[in-house]
Amino acid sequence: MAPVPSFPVKVGHIDDVQELNKAKPITVPERFVRDMADRPKLTENISTSTGIPIIDLSKLMEGDRDERFSEVMQLQTACEEWGFFQVLNHGIDLNVLENMEKVAKDFFMLPLHEKQKYPMAPGTVQGYGQAFVFSENQKLDWCNMFALGVEPPCIRNPKLWPSNPANFREILEIYSREIRELCKILLKYIAVSLGLKGDVFEEMFRVAVQAVRMNYYPPCSRPDLVLGLSPHSDGSALTVLQQGKDSSVGLQILKDQTWLPVQPIPNALVINIGDTLEVLTNGKYKSVEHRAVTHKEKDRLSIVTFYAPSYEIELGPMPELVDEKNPCRYRRYNHGEYSKHYVTNKLQGKRTLEFAKIQPNTSN
Q1: Which domain of life is it from (predicted)?
Q2: How many CB atoms lie within 10 A of CB 39?
Q3: How far is CA 264 from the centre of its chain?
Q4: Which of 12, 71, 262, 308 could be bridged to 59 by S-S, CB 3.0 to 4.6 A?
């Protein structure tokens, strides 16, 4: 396993972006200013549709034969060519989504001293603060995070589940159960799109690991200089993103070397393929780099759920997806080791996936 980093940065008053924003600074602290090559190129027409595929889950589950076939083909294209899609008619009650959004926003609006009762400890990604920060000279994201392990119960840290807002725990439990069922359904149809048995991932994953991270991006006076969240792919199998109703457009995905904005669709959820599914499909379905940008006047809230196999299982490309034309690209490894590797390295595009890749033999 990768060692726990030696130089964790504990985010305090000076690095908390909400506190910084209260002062309405004209300049951005140097710690947040990106190098020229990493700065976002913000366009006026940021809301233009990017063509990211839309999947209607009701057609997959309840449509006639032709509708189901068409939607499975659309899902295959989404996973193979985009790594991202938005899902409509997902079956989750809109009140559940609205309650989760409200309680997350209420938490971020608490006084700093209240939020700091749930600190993110060095080398972990649970609690309030900034994750993936391992050195004093590392650039910080213009974002406050609050992350919690949800399932299985052994990964929870009860001390980090806040008692304020009073209904936080209850709402998160209900929300997480609904999202978990959605992930199982989506993985069933992803398996079908690969020509596999629908229950193959559920059987393989055993008791799936589920975590949630809430991100709050305050307005920034110089959105052209900072990033809300550094470019990265996710270590999960699937990631489910809920974007706040009144939030600015912030999510961007890297396609054909261009950063494309993802325009939120009302009541839809954004789904993306994680590194784990890329490994299991031997690269047929790829995880995709994505990042968040900020806005000069609007804030943004997002709620992200990561769904992954049990830490105890061994992973590698599925034999059905390996042949002479598609040789094995990834080694077998323990998923817990990969997860440890992921959370103890800073976000750097898809570099974390090098952990699993079979390196070409250069000795000849």
Answers
A1: Eukaryota
A2: 16
A3: 15
A4: 71
The pTM is what? 0.90
Report residue 72 as tokens: 């499975």
DSSP-derived pairing of the beta strands 209-217 and 269-273: unpaired
CA–CA distance, 29 with 21 (Å, rounded to integer): 11
* Per-residue pLDDT reduced to its tens digit, 114-159: 999 999 877 678 899 876 666 677 788 899 999 999 999 999 999 9
Q: What is the CATH number of domain 13-355?
A: 2.60.120.330
β partners of residue 255: 258
Question: What does the pLDDT average to over 172-176?
Answer: 97
Return the pLDDT at 38: 86
Cα–Cα dist 337/343, whole Å: 10
> Is the CB of residue 309 less than 8 Å from the CB of residue 193?
no
Record the tokens describing residue 209, joined without a space: 């690991």
- Strand 251-255 relative to strand 290-292: parallel, antiparallel, unpaired? antiparallel
Is the bond leading into 152 cis (omega within 30 degrees of zero)? yes
Cα dihedral 211→214→215→216 (10° resolution): -170
Phi, psi torsion values for 262, nearest 5 degrees:
-105, 110
Residues 253, 275: Cα–Cα separation, whole Å: 15
Q: DSSP label at 352? A: G
| CA 149 – CA 153 distance, rounded (Å) | 8
Which residue type, as a one-letter code, is found at position 219?
P
Query: Residue 124: its pLDDT value, please?
Result: 75
Alpha carbon distance 40, 90 (integer Å) = 32
Spatial distance between the Cα atoms of 307 and 290, rounded to a whole number of angstroms: 17
Sequence-distant (≥ 6) Cβ neighbours of residue 37 within 8 angstroms: none
Strand 144-151: give its sheet, edge to edge: 54-56, 84-88, 269-273, 238-243, 300-308, 209-217, 144-151, 127-129
The total of other beta-carbon atoms located within 10 Å of residue 150's CB is 22
Pairing between strand 84-88 and 54-56? parallel
